[in-house]
């Protein structure tokens, strides 16, 4: 898996994405991300393998940034938001008395806060799961501002290795029901450009000393 750690102001950053369709010319001019494949299982496998290799080289990143597209029925289409909190909508052990979204016997809340913030980027809560969410009722049942398929898995790997995480998501769909793959890809070129500006904002904040961890 080809990727390159980005080094800015003495910090190394690993960017993580799921699909080549989200990785357009603007991001290509700035970063060489780890491409994991789609969904929480693929994200967890790819990032764990990568972290194990980097740890053996004594070169774990100082920061991980998970970025790509997301769906939302609330937020503005094509705009970019940083993740304030993430939950795992696939987990449901409620028949055994556990809170929905909470993994049994794991000392973590159902919703996990992400404390780091890049200045001047809008914010939103995120739900991760293996299903594509479509339709107003489906979004209402989930309750977060946006949905994706990888960030919670990336977060759990980061927690296992003691690395901080930032999530950046551009809203590609959600206002109408999805019927074909082009409903997802239609605005990815716009999101690519706006995500690249968010990445620039992170680099500038690090260089100016207004963002630290």
From TrEMBL:
Pfam families: PNP_UDP_1. Residues 35-174 form the Nucleoside phosphorylase domain. InterPro entries: MTA_SAH_nuc_hyp, Nucleoside_phosphorylase_d, Nucleoside_phosphorylase_sf. GO terms for biological process: nucleoside metabolic process. Signal peptide: none annotated. It comes from Rhizobium lusitanum. Transmembrane segments: none annotated. GO terms for molecular function: adenosylhomocysteine nucleosidase activity. Its EC number is 3.2.2.9. Gene3D superfamilies: Nucleoside phosphorylase domain (3.40.50.1580). Keywords: Glycosidase, Hydrolase. This is Adenosylhomocysteine nucleosidase. The lineage of its organism: Bacteria, Pseudomonadati, Pseudomonadota, Alphaproteobacteria, Hyphomicrobiales.
